[in-house]
Predict the structure.
Amino acid sequence: MTTTTIAASAPPLPQDLTAVLKRMRMPYLRAAAPEVLATAKAQRWDPTEVLRVLLAEEARGRDEATRAMRRKTAGLPAGKTFESWREHDSSIPVPTQSALAALEWVHRAENLAISGPSGTGKTHFVEALAHKVIDAGMRVSWFTLESLTAAIGRAQVDGSTSKVIARITRAELIVVDDIGMLPSGQAAAEAFYRLVDATYERRSLAVTSNIHPAGFDTIMPKTLATAAVDRLLHHAHVIITEGTSLRLAEATAGRGVVPLN
């Protein structure tokens, strides 16, 4: 008798056992139990093996649900991962890509600053790193400078700024994407400084920008920009991307859309 046959004929759990598993909030064990128990009976598993398989299924299901929830709450922009990343098309050296993907810098609460022209893969690479961080059991918070400014601004209205910053910095990696794409005023500079100061030597902060962080004082009030960049770069890996836009190259080559029939 095959496992498929067993699964098809597996009897449902008794109602009282189902009720207990619901009460104990073990949905993944409950779903797997009929098939596992039928297989265990047919193949004469040791009871400890049955228990191990059922608990492993519950742990697996919970881990997958946690990762899915963290992806949803992170606010990642496009779902881009390393599966769609073409490492040899990037100007970032491949050994550097591999070292950053190992995530040791996140465990050490170090920062990452990637700057370069638009379309050179900055956001894609950082988002792929963010997905790896979530897969490794950690949390991510993703912002643009504009969305960060809006979040801090709303908190200032009701006096909950400290609580909002604390909530953001519960994540092991915080990303601020595309700094410098739009003009930044006093409010943006204050929000960015608050975040950099709160994460300093406690959490990893990754920023992407079309200008080097040393030039942030050209888009923000100088005093706040200088203080923020000083903390940002103290424990940071600084990456400069080069070349023409990969998006423009794909569009020019006709790979930006599916051809019309």
Q: What stands out?
A: The beta strands are 111-115, 140-144, 173-179, 204-209, 236-240. The longest strand covers residues 173-179. The chain has twelve helices and five strands.
